[in-house]
């Protein structure tokens, strides 16, 4: 994996590996057992995705509440005096009618051939209160762009309030190849047949794979640990994955 270097301007906490908060936005500490309500952390693909990359925490004491009024974004916070004379203040500004910007004052340097992508923080997708800010994805080619980041957020719909609170994550960042050099092509008949055979074998052995881990949630949804068990087996065979 590439080494990503960072520098900060002002009194900002550094980015950190994403913490899947349990209890918290990752879900409650409910066991995988009959009668439990399904939680985000119960899903291995989501848990893996949620921890992929780093998160940025809101650094200010002032709580910021974002709403939409008369078709325009409204930013409400008691900012007071700037905490750093060299910092843009306030650090949030309207960006057109439906978006707003934040001067994050963070510079990330990825090695040649890599770029930095901003993403909504995964807690946005688990937040039943709909108060988590919605970051707009953007790809920054930091190899030749050494400027401090600013990021764009989408304003909430009417009647919804997005809230920034000190210490809460509001943005995730991932490093990925700068060029999307993907080639899509259909499988050959032989490749498709081999995949289908593997899928049928897996389906036939799913009960054995899930033995002792199948449970029925409070919403009558059936869960089993087949994927989770195979994931652990694959990692044990190849720890680099």
For the structure shown, list the relevant keywords.
single chain, 241 residues, alpha+beta, Deoxyuridine 5'-Triphosphate Nucleotidohydrolase, Chain A, four-stranded antiparallel β-sheet
Global outline: globular
Give me the CATH fold name of the domain at 5-18 and 53-177.
Deoxyuridine 5'-Triphosphate Nucleotidohydrolase, Chain A
Name the helix and strand elements from N-terminus to C-terminus, one letter apiece: EEHEEEEEEEEEEEEHHEEH
Biggest beta sheet attributes: 5 strands, antiparallel
Mean pLDDT across the residues is 91
Q: Specify the oligomeric state.
A: single chain
CATH class of the domain at 5-18 and 53-177: Mainly Beta
Integer-rounded radius of gyration: 22 Å
Strand content: 25-35%
Terminal-residue CA separation = 11 Å
SS-based structural class?
alpha+beta
Helix content: 10-25%
Number of beta-strand segments: 16
CATH architecture of the domain at 5-18 and 53-177: Distorted Sandwich
Tell me the CATH superfamily of the domain at 5-18 and 53-177. Deoxyuridine triphosphatase (dUTPase)
Task: Return residue spans where pLDDT drops below 50 for at least 5 consecutive residues.
Answer: none
Total helices: the number is 4
- In spatial order, strands of the major sheet run 2-3-14-9-11
